[in-house]
Amino acid sequence: MGRDVPPQPENERRLREICLALPEATEEETWGAPTYRVRGKIFAMQRTDERGLSMWCKAPPGVQELLVNAEPERYFVPPYVGHHGWIGVRLDNGADWDDVEDLITDSYHLTAPKRLVARLSEPA
Predict the structure, then answer these.
(1) Position 54 in a domain
(2) What pTM did the predictor assign?
(3) Digits of tens for pLDDT over the chain (124 positions)?
(4) Would you say residue 123 lies in a domain?
């Protein structure tokens, strides 16, 4: 698998916190890593490979190409799901967590039922 990748508990914790803050979001291990779901449908995945820790999520049309072209050192087309418009984000090279949270929220909007998405706009 190339170089040994050290554990990144802080980045993993932040990713988990962002994902599980969304209405009815759950965590389930699949393919040996955490996936984040709403009503059984995946909206984000954590991945570790020879390049380090990353997060994959659905993206609105055009976003994948825009981000990958703008910052290929941070964003990439993930295998298996990239052809469906998913975006990969490297989390171990100074990730912009506001951007990560925005991408995860967009992915949740694309995955969750409208009733759950509407709960995001409700006052706390």
Answers:
(1) yes
(2) 0.90
(3) 445 656 678 999 999 999 999 999 999 999 889 999 999 999 999 999 888 999 999 999 999 999 999 999 999 999 999 999 999 999 988 899 999 999 999 999 999 999 999 988 877 6
(4) no
CATH number of the domain residue 46 falls in: 3.90.1150.30
The helix (run of H) or strand (run of E) holding residue 119 is helix 114-119
- Has residue 120 been placed in a domain? no
User: Can you tell me the distance from the alpha carbon of 47 to that of 41, in angstroms, rounded to the nearest whole number?
Assistant: 17
Residues β-bridged to residue 46: 55
For residue 114, CA distances in Å to 19, 108, 110 come to: 17, 10, 9
Q: Pull the structure tokens for residue 7.
A: 């554990």
What are the counts of helices (DSSP H) followed by strands (DSSP E) for the chain?
4, 6
CA distances from 93 to 17, 25, 89 (A): 19, 26, 10
